[in-house]
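User: I want to check something. If I give you two sequences, will you return the structure for each one separately, not as a complex?

Assistant: Yes, each is folded on its own. Here is the first sequence with its structure:
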Amino acid sequence: KAVELCAMARTEEWLKKSGYSVEDTHDARPYDFLAKKDGCQLFVEVKGTIGDFCDSIVMTKNEVELHRERKGSTALFLVSQIQLQRNEDPPKAIGGFLEEHIGWDIDSWHNVPIAFQVSRRK
């Protein structure tokens, strides 16, 4: 959770410095932020990791659908190299290298299903 919150804070800071107004939507929508600037909306997904590089992410079905339906008005922000301080209670995350993909085309990345919902037949 600390890594996720750190990545979101870094992304929000970047968006605001770049002139966007930012609404946190991660609890209610399939995107983390709705950013607005010059009459345009940007649907922002944020992923964070303590790893050195982020070249693979996990997304929900709703997130994937959003990025396909709103292609051209979505963004992916990756924050790698986040330092997790586990000696604190609760753990604290700081730093990170921010990589922004504005107008991200999800279909330019490999999309591989890794889970299925399996239900009893009725």
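And separately, the second sequence with its own structure:
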Amino acid sequence: YHVVGAKVMAADVKTGPAKTVNGQSAKLTAMGGKVMVDKANVIKADIACDNGVIHVIDAVILPKM
């Protein structure tokens, strides 16, 4: 639920749903230079890795059951 199948940098995030690899959608909110995933704040963004980009959040997000 916490992985999307695309390379998305924080500056490119738009408010709306993002389809995750498990097939569900996470709610993205971009406002005033801040980004949220569901109710979690992105506290460190754009950590480039060999297999994608990591964005650190301040809460656990879970798919809807």
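Because they were folded independently, the notes below concern the second chain alone. The mean pLDDT is 93. DSSP finds no helices and five strands in the chain.
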